[in-house]
Amino acid sequence: MAIKIEMLRCFATVAQTGNLAEAASRLGRTQSALSMTLKQLEETLGQRLFESDRKNRLTQLGEQVFELAQTELRQFDYTIEAIQACAKSRAGLIRVASVPSIAAQVFPIAIRSLTERHPGLRIELRDTDSQQVVDALTRGRVDLGIASGEHSLNDVRSTLLFSDTYGLICAPDHALAQQPEPPSIEQIKTTPFIRNNLLGLIETSAFQEAIADTRVSVHNTMSLTAMVRTGAWVTVLPQSVVRFMSPDLVFRPLQDLPDRRKVSLLMRNRASFPEFCQELWDLLTAYDWQADLNRAR
Hints:
The chain has 13 helices and nine strands. By secondary structure, the protein is α/β, with parallel strands linked by helices. The termini are far apart. Helix 1 packs across helix 2, helix 1 packs across helix 3 and helix 5 crosses helix 12. The strands form two sheets. Strands 1, 2, 3, 4, 7, 8 and 9 form a seven-stranded mixed β-sheet that branches. Strands 5-6 form a two-stranded parallel ribbon. It folds into three domains: about 80 residues, Winged helix-like DNA-binding domain superfamily/Winged helix DNA-binding domain (Arc Repressor Mutant, subunit A, Orthogonal Bundle); about 100 residues, 3-Layer(aba) Sandwich (D-Maltodextrin-Binding Protein, domain 2), CATH 3.40.190.10; about 100 residues, D-Maltodextrin-Binding Protein, domain 2 (3-Layer(aba) Sandwich).
């Protein structure tokens, strides 16, 4: 018997809830029907997915199947949503993913311009981290993306939008904010530091060595901001991110960190509505990013 998507959905729901009753309630199915579906899946695989009939603990294979099933279900559900959105969007649909700081920086202007020119055009914008932007593009979930770094992807064209400097982010009463000279990489070693997702793009070995023993990593910008605002920690971020953080934080370039964060625009060659995607591409590439960065200083 072939494995069907509903088999994976039933299995994943039982694995999440840890019992048949709750899973059956969520799926709107009877427990007996759910149990039969799980039995068919295990028979197809030739191995057990749960260690006991209580369904509260996965086998080693079950853990692997659960992880893969979740990925497949997310992709399937997104595909269905995209098909339905395309069917409703006779006037056109653009799907965009961007790193948060850029999404807030220029998309309000660009999207207003597009929607004014094309009444009925639908635009879906999601903000996420760079890796998920790339994943969404390669899987066909979005048509355009803006991500940190430079990327060479099959069937996706890209261009560099801008680059900006990295700097230390700290509270105004922090010692590194008050000293007259720009802080250095060496000084980072002497103060509690928070790692964030963008630091992996920095190639300067002295910097990576300085933060190698960092024990705290924060991936959410709001949480990162809140922790730095206390004055107990510092972090390093690109200049373009600063304006979207708390206004009472200080940005100071590091005197011995030459790296610049590069931000790229990417578009699928087989976008659903290429004429609208190209129009948004033209708006974004025509934007004066450097002037915008200068205003942030």
